[in-house]
Amino acid sequence: MNPHFAPGRKWGTLKWSQRWEIGGASVVPETSFDGTDRQKLLERWTERTVRWIRERVEEANCSGTVLGVSGGLDSAAAAALCQRAYPDNALAAILPCESDERDMHYGRMLVDTLNMECIEVSLDESYGALLEQLPSVGGERGRLARANIKPRLRMTALYYLAQSRSSLVVGAANRAELYLGYFTKHGDSGSDLLPLGRLVKSEVEAVAAHLGVPQEIIDRPPTAGLWPGQTDEEEMGMSYAEVDRYLLRGWAEPEISSGIESAHRRSEHKRKMPPLPPFSLGEGAVRPPGGEDRESRS
């Protein structure tokens, strides 16, 4: 049983193991309730999330949103939410970095569908110039290190655009990715808001369809675009359906559940602010939050 899962109450006559969730709200699976109820739930979640985005932007004394559009499902759903929240100040950035041309094709398809303001900036030369200055590292470790430069360069470009427009950067990570740590630290995790962070992959699909994301984008195999032919599920060693079921229902095959929890433990550092030492300059002194130095008695 997933220790982080709380079964909660039943939905009508259905047991908790037969339901799914959207942002913490219990939902009967699509085949078990009519389209009207499903549509109402999705619209309610959308309205709440759009309002939440606006509130966070206003709290930061900003006026809009910026996000990277990869041509994939998650960024498409996040972009559609931003466009609803700020129809006149939501910028989509297509930032190819040795990217598959199909990613750019689907990114353009999305912004055309949403009638969204868009900017395209190639990061190929910046990526190549940086690699020329860095020591070469071989093997799988080197391949991953090089690949992770790409989302970190995109983060840098997104924050430049956001600051120049008095906007917040919106990320597209979903609940499954956050739990597994399947994101690049200070890369695609570098954002101010994560509106999809409480939704598993299947829920993001439902939201994307509701928001009018083209079906071709929804049906694409998920990929981080780190290298040619790379897919999320191959790299994770499990399917999103298996991760979704584990997070929502608390069950998976032993090998899968072990893999999920192992990934969660290994990636804990990605979900935390950098740790601070529990002492200050005074020898033997500790500084409690908001307090003065005091001598440690431990």
* CATH homologous superfamily title: HUPs
The stretches of 5 or more residues where confidence is low (pLDDT under 50) are 1-20, 24-33
CATH architecture: 3-Layer(aba) Sandwich
| Count of alpha and pi helical runs | 11
CATH topology: Rossmann fold
Number of domains: 1
Largest sheet: 4 strands, parallel
The percent range for strand residues is: 5-15%
Residue share in helix = 40-55%
Give me the oligomer status: single chain
Structural class: alpha/beta
N-to-C span: 38 Å
| SSE string | EEHEHEHEHHEHHHHHHEE
Q: Would you state the CATH class?
A: Alpha Beta
Average pLDDT across residues? Answer: 85
User: What is the tally of beta strands?
Assistant: 8
Side by side, the strands of the main sheet go 5-4-3-6
Protein topology:
Layout: E1 20-22, E2 25-27, H1 35-59, E3 64-68, H2 73-85, E4 90-94, H3 101-114, E5 117-120, H4 124-133, H5 139-164, E6 167-169, H6 175-180, H7 201-210, H8 215-218, H9 232-236, H10 240-249, H11 254-266, E7 285-286, E8 294-295
Parallel strand pairs: 3-4, 3-6, 4-5
Antiparallel strand pairs: 1-2, 7-8
